[in-house]
Design a protein that fits this description.
single chain; alpha/beta; TIM Barrel; 2 domains; 8-stranded parallel beta barrel; 41% helix; elongated
């Protein structure tokens, strides 16, 4: 079997042209990157969701640029063939374009990401243009944007004709600014269908129905590793949280019963049979 080639942003465009669906999975460390890449996903997103599913925060807002750099580095150590995309955290790109370029550059230069993702539509297109001009590939993100949760809540977006038109205009503007792909989050499936058909760049859905060019999901949601809630847009493919609890409980029971460590876990050194070392 031929060795898998690294995925690029040009592969995203080619997949849309061929009608092939794009698979994106979040990853935050070496194991999630290793196993996600081994499964053959097209891209690994080092999302600011790390703040919730790994660090235990209530929202993504506390996540810092240093934290994302740290997690991108861990993902990159798995040497994935998948495209590695890193989220630009809250307030790392909203202040001005120069700061956005500097911060995004760190994710590529220090972290090893291949691209960055940022939230917002027409209000961030000037930032997207500057990043692209600097040679930094950008994935857009419209619809429900978690960094704006205090302003918009966590409700379904683009539910009225006016709001749907606004979202379509935002998506077109991001494409015009040079984004290579756009995440559509928590919007009606008909809106996602129209946006996907209108754009020449791929759309990646999450809670946006079946009509996008691809899908992104959170590693911990798919595997049952986030105990607080299971999003409606997700599907549990395993219950590893319960499996981990059961395994640790079995370990604890064996230790308390004196059955672990056992003979097969014990190291013996013949030279220590001489009791003289004890005196």
């Amino acid at each position: 079997m031929a060795e898998r080639k690294p995925v690029t942003i040009f592969d995203f465009a080619a997949k849309k042209a061929r009608g092939e669906r794009i698979v994106v999975l979040t990853a935050y460390d070496y194991p999630s990157a290793f196993y996600g890449d081994a499964a053959g996903v097209d891209a690994l997103l080092v999302g600011d969701t790390v703040g919730m599913v790994v660090l235990g925060h209530e929202t993504t807002l506390p996540v810092t640029l240093d934290a994302v750099v740290h997690h991108v580095q861990a993902v990159r150590r798995a040497r994935p063939k998948a495209l590695v995309i890193a989220d630009l955290p809250f307030l790392t790109y909203q202040v001005n374009a120069d700061e956005a370029v500097r911060n995004a550059g760190r994710l590529l230069q220090e972290g090893g990401a291949n691209a960055v993702k940022l939230e917002g539509g027409r209000r961030v297109t000037a930032i997207v243009e500057r990043l692209v001009q600097a040679g930094i590939p950008v994935m857009g993100h419209v619809g429900l944007t978690p960094q704006s949760a205090h302003a918009m809540g966590r409700r379904i977006q683009a539910r009225s004709p006016e709001a749907a038109r606004e979202l379509l205009d935002d998506a077109r503007a991001l494409q015009e600014a040079g984004a290579f792909s756009i995440v559509l989050e928590t919007i009606p499936d008909e809106v996602a269908r129209v946006v996907t058909a209108e754009l020449s760049i791929p759309t990646i859905g999450i809670g946006a129905g079946p009509h996008c060019d691809g899908e992104v999901q959170v590693f911990h949601d798919l595997l049952g590793l986030y105990p607080r809630f299971s999003p409606k847009h997700s599907r549990r493919y395993a219950e590893l949280g319960q499996a981990i609890t059961d395994a640790v409980a079995a370990f604890a029971a064996d230790v308390r019963a004196g059955t672990f460590p056992a003979e097969e876990n014990t190291f013996h050194e013949p030279t220590l049979e001489d009791p003289s070392w004890k005196s």
